[in-house]
Amino acid sequence: MNYIPFEEYKRKWIFTHQSMPVAEEDREHIKPMTEDRGGQLWRDFISQQSPTPDHFGKGDWAIMRDVWEQESDWQHPWEEEGDLPEDVLAYFPWEDNAVVYFCYDKSNIVETRWGMFKKYWKNFLFYDDKPLLIGRKRKEVAMFEQNGTVKLGKRP
User: The pTM is what?
Assistant: First the structure.
């Protein structure tokens, strides 16, 4: 089994919070991964040795300066009830049905579609401890920093 039932996800409240709930029919497109599956994806695409973004170290692509091409502000649009910032949207030339992974840490990864992420990006960012957005078979990546900026780059 690759996914946890939505109702059993320990952070489901970020998608059911009354101030900005995800529509019932859209919840089926938000798929929290099991720890085993998430851990494997993390090891394959993010880090062999670091369990969380705070522990990235030597050998982790996420701390390499040449990975990151630009920065943008995500916090003000989040607070002002705006859409995902335009420069973030422009950086990801993905179809709405592209599979994406929102990676909080190696044991907490959510799979969804790019269109769903764009629609509910604020929910995903209730936790902003440097989560990474990566796409299946894609090089573009984003890291959302706690200071309200998002770094945009390409994985090696």
Answer: 0.95
